[in-house]
Amino acid sequence: MRDANAARAGDSCRRFDPLGGDSIHPSVMKRCVSVVLAGFLLACATAPPKPQQKPSPATTWRDSVLYFVVLDRFADGDPANNVSVDIAQKGTFHGGDLAGLLRQIDDIASLGVTALWITPVVKNIDGFVTGAGFPDWAYHGYWTDDFDRLDPRFGTEAQLKQLVDECHARGIKVLLDVVYNHAGYNTHYLADPKTKAWLRSNETGSCGNDDVTSCVAGLPDWKTELPEVDEFLMGAHLPLAKRVGLDGFRLDTVKHVQHPFWQEHRRRTRAIRNDFFLLGEVWGGDAQSLDPWFAGDEMDAGFDFGFQGSVIAWLQGRGRTIAFDRYLKSREKVRTGYLLSHFLSSHDVRGALDQLDGDKDLFRLAAILEFTSTGLPMIYYGEEVARRGGDWPENRSDMPWGDRAVKPGEGKPRDEAMLADYKKLIAIRKAHVALSRGTHTPISTDGDLLVFSQRDETTGDQVIVAVNRGTAEAPLTVAVPWPVTQVTDSWYGEHLRVEAGTVRTVVGPKGARILSEK
Questions:
Q1: Residues in contact with 37: Cβ distance below 8 Å, sequence separation at least 6, in sequence order
Q2: What is the pTM of this model?
Q3: What would the pLDDT profile of 343-357 be if each residue is shown by its tens digit?
Q4: pLDDT score of 374
Q5: Where would I find the H helices in 21-137?
Q6: CA max distance for the chain
Q7: Which residues have a Cβ under 8 Å from the Cβ of 389 and sit 6 or more positions away?
Q8: Residue 132 burial (CB count, 10 A)
Q9: In which order are the strands placed within the sheet that holds 512-516?
Q10: Separation between Cα atoms, residue 468 and residue 322, nearest integer Å
């Protein structure tokens, strides 16, 4: 969590120094049979019906679209597991759980996404951290108290497995967020002499000053240089992944754990399944800074933190179009076989729509640029219905459900037109392999109009994208590579005339064109 005295765990728990290298904005299975059976029966009772036909899954992760859910903020399906829930407060639990996510899984599937990432579900600390004027609980899942149990506030292992099964039935892969670097504040591991010796902590004065030995945000730091600690941590996460059939992990605070750990972790996850996917968070990551982990084949993909800021800056007129185009081209410099995952919003940064001052027209252009760029695009829950997502804690506000009786976001407004546009963009991306695999080539970078093509050499698929950030319409004259008399603008659903191999049209103010042969 973010407040002046304590920051979020892992993704959510760093000391929030805006100048720090791994910092953000300031503010800071073992259970009894009866519990498993009760959770399983509840999951069965609340599960959505299976779809009639299984959609074809993405060929590879390179063709995927990822949807990220902060579990506690999405949907409350089981009020009986609500502990310390107070939806009027920013830092308390709001009741979202696996049962609620299960009930709304068809809503996510209808977007067309092919992968789901959920925040950690292990048992978190029971207490809270103060400092921002309100209690700050571990609703986000990053303050672990027991790696061997699921937090009953989120649900049961049976429900987690059912979620994976239901997602697989819909052609959706599942990533679970896991934390290897640290435990939660005042974790019970500090009370056990054996595990206390495995942790660096402020209590013992053993925190270091480098990335690996520092106690991020004052959180107890696992000594992953010790083989017995590695065995303990991997022995908690990996068997769970195998039991429930996960497709991979989202790895928290990657740079705070040394490379040998990640190399062994890779070896063991491949023993679960050869295509077990690892998506890592290296704060501020880009193709260059992520390469040490790609070079050692320690993970498959990492987050591209520069995408959001670059897109927003260009849309707001800060910077020349040619410079922005060069940035888009530079994203291709990732090591062959590895991916950058780009996003517009997340639980750790101010939401893109908020940064754009609520301008939905510009936000649509941001989404167009996201879904016409190579990499693994990540949708942060609710942005598809225009959840504004301000700075912390508003970037973790409840999923808006409008007039649907789904807590905790019941009654919160949502933009169904934005939802329709997201569905359209995902469908366009899935229809054109050039958008996920193609080579970026600039066509025009004058003024406020950016025009580029994406072409996949293997299939010959090609798409021409034109984005106008300006407030006046921009003329568009572009030679098309196809021997046709008309091309399709997939964004507006229009057919445009081709004369002498050229399309002449306009791009509306704060508008776009996505042109293809069919």
A1: none
A2: 0.89
A3: 999 999 999 999 999
A4: 97
A5: 33-46, 98-103, 105-109
A6: 79
A7: 345, 350, 351, 352, 353, 354, 380, 382, 383, 395, 397
A8: 19
A9: 439-444, 449-455, 462-468, 512-516, 486-489, 494-497
A10: 13
241-282 residue pLDDT tens: 999 999 999 999 999 999 999 999 999 999 999 999 999 999
Q: Can you read off the two tokens belonging to residue 492?
A: 């507006």
DSSP H or E stretch at residue 110: none
On whether the CB atoms of residues 491 and 513 are closer than 8 A, the answer is yes
C-alpha span between 319 and 236 (Å, rounded):
48
Q: Which two tokens stand for residue 289?
A: 């800074």
Q: Which residues, in sequence order, are CB contacts of 245 under 8 Å at separation 6+?
A: 161, 164, 165, 168
- Paired tokens of 451: 């025009």
In 3D, which of 492, 225, 271 has the Cα closest to residue 364?
492
Backbone torsions φ then ψ of 5, nearest 5 degrees:
-105, -25
3-state secondary structure 424-486: HHHHHHHHCHHHHHCEEEEEECCCCEEEEEEECCCCCCEEEEEEECCCCCEEEEEECCCCCCE
* CA dist., res. 10 & res. 145, Å (int): 14
Please tell me the predicted confidence (pLDDT) of residue 337: 96
pLDDT value of residue 135: 75
Any residues with CB less than 8 A from the CB of 436 and at least 6 apart, and which?
Answer: 62, 63, 374, 375, 429
Q: What angle do CA 223, 187, 102 make, to 5 degrees?
A: 105
What are the residues whose beta carbons fall under 8 Å from the beta carbon of 142, sequence distance 6 or more? 8, 9, 10, 11, 12, 13, 119, 120, 124, 177, 179, 184, 252
All residue ranges of the chain with pLDDT < 70 are 1-59, 131-134
